[in-house]
Design a protein that fits this description.
By secondary structure, this protein is mainly alpha-helical. Among the domains are: about 50 residues, no CATH class; about 45 residues, no CATH class. Helices cover about 60% and strands about 0% of the residues. α1 packs parallel to α3 and α7 packs antiparallel against α8. It is flat and about 85 Å long.
Length: about 180
Amino acid sequence: MTRHPTPLERFRNRLDAFGADLDRWPDADRREAADLIAREPAARALHREARALDRALAAAPLVPPSEHARIAGAIMAALSRPTPAAQPEPVSARIIPLPPRHRVEPHRSGASSPPRRQLWQVAASLAASLVMGVLIGLVDVAEQPLRGLLETAGIESEISQLMATLSGDSLTPPLDEDQL
């Protein structure tokens, strides 16, 4: 669906194209702009800003055409010079030293090993994660809710194709958004 701009958006676009002087605008747009400025505070504010920009541009000194080549050459020379920002930053400059929360001594062969409770907690967490991953992989979690959704939508004929596509058992392309 095509979205049409609001009168204020059209007014802003015309200000950008023609400037604040309504005499430079096409006749039909000029009448519409004058009406909008009269009744909309937002249009008046935009028109005021455009007039200020027009005044600033009119006050700017003009560069004589004889200087155009010199200015273009200076810009091209500046662009061809390497900039310091193009050099990679050393790794040490990106490291932020943080104070340690507690001192950790390196493990020595003669030193006592870390407490068994800590090792047990880490091992149990990893084992639980592994078991959950395997169970989720074995039990197709998404199949039943998706099947119910498709049946409710009245697309029973597409269910088997979609399930085969989701499980990777099919060489057919996935369903197009319009089919759903």
